[in-house]
Amino acid sequence: PFNLWFTGLPASGKTVIADAVYVELEKMQIPIERIDSKDIRDLIPNIGFSREERNRHLSRVGHLIKTLQNNSISTVASFISPYKESRKALRNMVKNNIVVYVKTDIETCKKRDTTGSYERALRGELKNFTGISDVYEEPEHAEIVIETEKLSIEESAQVITNYIKKHYMK
Question: Is-catalytic flag, 78?
Fold first, then answer.
């Protein structure tokens, strides 16, 4: 089993691309689960957004993925995961971790933001907001980099599913 780990700024396109990839992989009859940060935060509320809280949170997610992998289930996970150390810990924790960096400039993310989060963060109403009042440390060793200004959702999903076919399908 593999884990596709989608990372990027808020509103970069992680979730929509991961959703599209999940649909395509399901068609290939791969035993697979979809894990998105909003669903996990609904399940485990009051996690917080400090560096320490985010790292602890992603460690829990890593354990969930590891458990699924122990049952021969691959995963498609989408989380901002702004810090190198939490992505490194995840890579060490799970098998076949494929980092998909959804690279999008902050101005595009602001335009895509449907919740008003960027505006609230710029006004100081949201603390530890990635890209505004907190850092996003770009992945240096992503297996796949998707530049959303250059590729559509469908094209992005195709790049990723082709990677899976090439490296993980017999």
Answer: no
